[in-house]
Amino acid sequence: MRIIIVEPKNPGNLGAIARLMKNFGLKDLTVVNINRIPSEDLFRSMKGSEILSKCRMVSSLQDAIKGLDYVAGTSGVKSDSPKEVLRNYLEPKEFVRLTSEIKGKIGIVLGREDIGLVNEELGMCDFFVHIPADDEYPILNVSSAAAILFYEMFGGGKKKKIETISRRENDRLIEKFRQSLIENNYPKHRVQKTTLLFRRVISRAILSPYEYRILMGAIGCSHKDIIDI
Amino acid sequence: MRIIIVEPKNPGNLGAIARLMKNFGLKDLTVVNINRIPSEDLFRSMKGSEILSKCRMVSSLQDAIKGLDYVAGTSGVKSDSPKEVLRNYLEPKEFVRLTSEIKGKIGIVLGREDIGLVNEELGMCDFFVHIPADDEYPILNVSSAAAILFYEMFGGGKKKKIETISRRENDRLIEKFRQSLIENNYPKHRVQKTTLLFRRVISRAILSPYEYRILMGAIGCSHKDIIDI
Fold first, then answer.
1. Residues B82, A211: contact at Cβ < 8 Å?
2. Which domains does chain B carry?
3. Which of A44, A94, A159 is facing B159, going by the closest CB pair?
4. pLDDT in tens, A137-175
5. Interface-testing mutation among A23, A85, A135, with chain B (most B C-beta atoms within 10 A)
6. SS3 for A4?
7. How far apart are CA A35 and CA A57, in angstroms?
8. Nearest CB to B134: which of A23, A152, A208?
9. Is the pLDDT reported for residue B42 higher than 90?
10. d(CA A191, CA A193)
11. For the segment A31-89, what is each residue's pLDDT rounded down to a tens digit?
């Protein structure tokens, strides 16, 4: 994956994007039409400074996309009309899904802070990616757009796996809760309903094995059940 | 939804976050422990400048969270150990799913650029949200983190609805393609396989009605079929 930035003007954005590349495991940076890297950007890039200092500088988008199999342009200006072929857009998630199936090398083009990518540049792109935002002001800062795109490409869509307790453990905890009600002389006619309420709450929370063990010790806590936290 | 920023130090971040709030339809901003808004931030906030100039300034997180029903802290420093209750984290998507079911007022707390939120502050939070990133350098700039969180809260997860053609139209286009092969003396023994290949390609692309009409005119194009683009 190659990240291409076209004519960054406001100091800071280039550095912020280099930092984001490091955050999300990207390495290959090409910058179009700058002469040198501003010190403000080197400062902002933090641990992404190596990516920034090793970036390739070229004089045109045409040069920047050489060697790529697919190129994706980005812009805050989209069109919802199907006739506007140039600005018919993919949302980040669709783009990630599509490109996950591509074997070749892909480039993402981020435009200027003020006018973004011009139509001629968008015309060189195979995909056009737009980030959905509020209609009143959908134009994101270029490094904010980069944050969202890189996050999605990194796999923002996939949930971390949570280790959870089994149905049997769930039942055991609920039974312990019921027993503790009885032992504590909770009104008999309310035991069943309160236990059901407890079951609903506990099930919704989806307990980890650790949380289960702690609660097993805490509910109706006879000392022998308490474990070290 | 209230956005709370604790002690922003590097000029620019506060402005970038105010702009992002405008981008994603958020309005309520509280800043902890600043005396005045730096001019650099007002410049960067662009159309979010009203949000910034109307922000509430308070002297502690305790004051900032008054009136909220739930508070979510954010940090790049997480723990994967279930025993680290304080830094056991939710990913942005899980957080959005959970809070979408909450009726009360929610606050999101963004920490300092250098040390983030201290443990005492995280302890005031009901949720702890962490953005998954590369293990080598998972610490995001605060405005990058805000970009990703606000995007997810805005509904980054929902796909735009695409108007697509029906199965009947799909078949009609494929049949037209097959006819055009025959009319153009394409080798007879390859017609069937090539048509199947075309079906696979076209089906994968999921055509819009507009694209369908254009292609119906373009394939085997007899003039009467061509429509205005």
1. yes
2. 2-156 (3.40.1280.10), 167-225 (no CATH)
3. A94
4. 999 999 999 999 999 999 875 556 667 788 788 889 999
5. A23
6. strand
7. 8
8. A23
9. yes
10. 6
11. 999 999 999 999 999 999 999 999 999 999 999 999 988 899 998 888 777 677 777 78
Identify the helix (H) or strand (E) that includes residue B56: strand B56-58
- The C-alpha angle B7, B13, B16, rounded to 5 degrees, equals 135
User: Which of A105, A104, A99 is closest to A129 using CA atoms?
Assistant: A99
Element containing residue B79 per DSSP (H, E): none
Whether the model pTM is above 0.95: no
User: What does the block give as tokens for B221?
Assistant: 């194009």
Q: Is the pLDDT of residue B222 over 60?
A: no
- Count of helices and strands (H, E) across chain B: 10, 6
Q: Are A17 and A146 in contact (CB under 8 A)?
A: yes
Length of chain A: 229
Mean pLDDT across chain B: 87
Tokens 């069109």 sit on residue:
A79
In chain A, which residues have their Cβ closer than 8 Å to the Cβ of B145?
147
B70 with B109: CB under 8 angstroms?
no
